[in-house]
Amino acid sequence: MTGRTARNRHAYLFIAPSLFGVVAFLLLPMVIVLVLSLFNWELLSAPEFAGLDNYRRLAGDGETWHSLAVTAGYVLLCIPLQTALALALAVLLDRRVAGLRTYRALFVVPWMATPIVLGLVWDWIFDPRDGALNSALALVGVDGPDWLSDPAWALPAVALVSVWQHTGYNMLFFLAGLQGVPRELHDAAAVDGATPAQRFWRVTLPLLNPTMFFVTVTNLIGAFQVFDTVYAMTGGGPSHSTEVLNFRIFQTAFKEFDFGYAATLSTLLFAVIFAVTLAQVRFFGKRTTYDLS
Amino acid sequence: MAKRILLYATLTIGAFVSVFPYLLVVLTAFKTQAQLSSTAPWLPGLPPTAGNLATMLAGDFPRYLLNTAVMTALLTAGQLVFTTFAAYAFARLRFRGRDVLFWLYVATMMVPSAVTMIPLFLIMRELDLVNTWYGLLAPYILGTPYGIFLMRQFFKSLPGGLEEAARIDGAGTMTILLRVLLPLCRPALGTLAIITIISSWNSFLWPLIITSGDDTRVITVAIATLKDGIGVDYHLMMAGSLIALVPMVAVFIFFQKHIVRSVVLTGLK
Amino acid sequence: MTHTPRIRWAGALLGAAMLLVPGCSSSAEPGKVTLTYRLWDDQQKAGYEKVMAAFEKANPGIDVTIELLPYDQYWTKLTADVVAGSAPDVFWMTPTQFPEFVTKGVLTPVKVDTAKYHKTVVGSFTYEGKLYGVPKDWGVVGLLYNKDLFAKAGVEMPDKLTWTPDGGGTLLDTARKLTVDEAGKHPGEPGFDPAKVRTYGFASWNHYQTQWMNWVVSNGGKLVDKPFGTYTFNDPASVQALQFGVDLVNKHHVSPPATRTNPPTGKVTDMFKAGEIAMFPANNALLPFVAPEATFEVGVAPMPEGPAGRAVNLNGLAETVYAKSDHPQEAMKLAEYLGTAEAQKIMADGGYVFPALDGLSQGYVDYWKAKKVDVSPFVEESEGTTFPLPITTGFTGFETKLNQLFNEMYLGKLTPQQAADQAVAEGNATVE
């Protein structure tokens, strides 16, 4: 009994520093934003209480619902691809491969590089005539599209940059997770006559669940909040085809100085992400013996 | 054998796609302004020039590199210590309010920082931390929800009987964490160190908002000032970015050796 | 073996580092006032270091700290600072951002002799009859051209470039001669392939400051009815002018397709630098990014004259004083000093900018003459008809929508009438 109380005390002591940081610097600003969604605030003048006005406006704001759809499209384009590729790479590299460390480092370079410069470089690559991408496609006889000015291709192009940037990064987590999968389990399954594919799906993947949960939850949060690449590459265009919600939030807050409504849009984005995360908790909770809650 | 070739072919193609955009950065960093306009981005400028690197290193850039290194070291040290304790508590100790607290942590990641930035800036203003090192470090040095989430997942994946066994041997909570669990967490700690170092090194918006003087200027902001409203000094920006990347690759290669299978863990099975 | 010492070591290091980290303020000398001056131009910062040294020498009680911010984030940071009450004492302001800040009481009126400064700059920073910023400099749109391409094509730059909405005038004629496809054919000749153009005679693209706004005004159209008024650029003359800009691309094929030039990723400047474009309307502020190390000789000509004569955008900046500055008197003193001939001459002679104060342009001209660029056409233009960017509240929010709509127009997906009607409607909805 005393042991348990002592451990309890330890627990509070252990989380105390981070709790202070989270409450003061993250939770408090977040609560302020949620409260501000009930205000009209033009940033440079004083806030005025507006009740649910902003939410009424949101209900009839077709452009916002459109940008929510764009955001969902973006998430669907990049999350499955970058997660699957990252896992595949991690599995390929979780063995004795000559030059292993070099490969790992090369795959992570996209995430290590200064983000602001990469926007400029991708502009070069996507140039419809002189760009590297269409020049390469021309070599194999494909007439590449006008990537960033074609409403059908702009969003996939932006998503492609995300996949490029985050695949190696996510691979890191899977690699670390794979180190925790005991070899004996694999060997036992092999003895039982399981094929490599079966071993992957039945042994490796279930044991990677905690990692998978972390990767999908954080990646989804990140993808729902995409901003930098859209700002640098398309400015929301063409024809609003890349106008993701977070871009709209930034515009509303800092270009239109309508901070109250930007807070409302942020609350919407928060609610969407929260719901999606909750669904993931449920999904992973059913599939694993680990306590995820 | 064929399988082996296929494996290397796949890895090599993947690595090429991964690195290609950065190759353009490297090539541009060694071009003169004239070569920049006369060669395709993926071709080298001949003869290459070290002039851009020299220009960057001759100015205030080394000082900003030092600022960035100090910031990165402090944030990483803080993150590794505080995150480990918090994540351990969330993953393996029972206490009242644990799950609510943890999900509050995660929820703070769900509100876009573009809007939380203004309230956070006001808080810093109240605390008189604007334009100080303390203000720059405070929001991240006590452990981030992201890092805590990551470590919690790793702690959770360790077998359950470890603590009981140690406790029977008379070990306290602290001893269990430091002597039993941490040695098993090397891959996770290595990963956490890598991502904290690199994301601190590349952090941009918060340093820019909370500080504005030369004393606290970091390299990402310095590089961004080379892009004006009207024009871009590509060759200098790329040179700056190349200088910024080299230490990160070194850090990565150093820390990734910790991401290896833990012998102890398999032995305990 | 054990990890404990390493953890302790890390904790001790952290504690020590926190103590060693430099404290909040650089402890000011007693009796000295420190002012903060904020700008976004890396190159001009060097000039202002000289200016501030001169100011500090003349005012021993005042120190000035220069803060350089990246242009893209300058406004985000300034907004955050204004909300927190911590904006710099003196900072740069553009005509398009000015209405937001002045109508919210962020800026202090200044007292300088307005007659001594360029009238378009003064007009850009005047609100309700008062001037709210010391005119700093101006940049004007002129026509940069590649003299080597002219020589190669055997074409002379006409004494006067002209344009008419129906495709008459010397501009289009000259641009046609300079546009060559891979087979050596010019637009209008049989067999000319617009998909395989090697060099373009002209750059027409979606850039309001250097492009379509100039066409509109030089065709007798109006951008806004009055300062702090509403947008009017969907009148017939404006739409005709917009059509001309689009025709240069999609009908006459003397200009690169919008897929390669539309913002935010447009590469017009790069294409001009690479010698793929012969004539390129640009603000003189672009010269430092184009002229040094250019692989060809850069010429400057005045912008073409339209049916209503020549009218070019003249974009001025101002030194504004924060209304809640802790040191209002000193801040005003600094701003006023920045408007004096002593300060502005340093910036002109260093080749940074055309000063807003009249009579100092020659320093800038001489600087560039030494670099073998004759910039006198810019001066000539500034003495003729010039217009500012639209001075209305809400432009900063409208800008992104405007660019998106006009991207469509240059791609040929919206007619100029449609694009202008939609833009004017959207824009006027944002005017307060």
Note the topology.
The complex is a heterotrimer of chains A (293), B (269) and C (432).
Chain A: H1 2-36, E1 39-40, E2 48-49, H2 53-59, H3 62-93, H4 100-112, H5 115-126, H6 132-139, H7 154-178, H8 183-191, H9 196-207, H10 209-224, H11 228-233, H12 245-255, H13 259-287
Antiparallel strand pairs in A: 1-2
Helix pairs in contact in A: 1-13, 3-7, 3-10, 4-7, 7-10, 8-9, 10-13, 12-13
Chain B: H1 2-29, H2 33-38, H3 51-58, H4 61-92, H5 98-107, H6 113-126, H7 133-141, H8 145-157, H9 161-168, H10 173-184, H11 186-201, H12 205-210, H13 219-224, H14 234-255, H15 263-268
Chain C: H1 4-20, E1 33-39, H2 42-58, E2 62-68, H3 71-84, E3 90-93, H4 98-103, H5 119-124, E4 126-127, E5 130-131, E6 134-146, H6 147-153, H7 170-178, E7 180-181, E8 197-202, H8 212-218, H9 236-250, H10 258-261, H11 268-273, E9 277-283, H12 287-290, E10 298-301, E11 312-321, H13 328-338, H14 341-349, E12 354-355, H15 361-370, H16 376-383, E13 386-387, H17 395-410, H18 416-430
Parallel strand pairs in C: 1-2, 1-3, 8-9, 11-13
Antiparallel strand pairs in C: 3-11, 4-5, 6-9, 6-10, 6-11, 6-12, 7-8
Helix pairs in contact in C: 2-14, 8-9, 14-15, 17-18
How would you sum up this structure, described in words?
The complex is a heterotrimer of chains A (293), B (269) and C (432). Chain A is 73% helix and 1% strand. Chain A is built from 13 helices and 2 strands; from the N terminus they run αββαααααααααααα. In chain A, strand 1 (39-40) and strand 2 (48-49) form a beta hairpin. The longest helix of chain A has 35 residues, at 2-36. Chain A is globular and about 70 Å long. Mean pLDDT of chain A is 89; it is low at 289-293. In chain B, helix 4 packs antiparallel against helix 11 (186-201). Chain B is built from 15 helices and no strands. With 269 residues, chain B is mostly helical. Chain C is of the alpha/beta class. Residues 1-11 and 16-27 of chain C have low confidence and may be disordered. Chain C has helices at 4-20, 42-58, 71-84, 98-103, 119-124, 147-153, 170-178, 212-218, 236-250, 258-261, 268-273, 287-290, 328-338, 341-349, 361-370, 376-383, 395-410, 416-430; strands spanning 33-39, 62-68, 90-93, 126-127, 130-131, 134-146, 180-181, 197-202, 277-283, 298-301, 312-321, 354-355, 386-387. In chain C, 42% of the residues lie in helices and 16% in strands. Classes of the chains: A mainly alpha (293), B mainly alpha (269), C alpha/beta (432). Chains in contact: A-B, A-C, B-C. At the A-B interface, helix 1, helix 3, helix 4, helix 5 and helix 7 of A face helix 1, helix 4, helix 5, helix 6 and helix 7 of B.
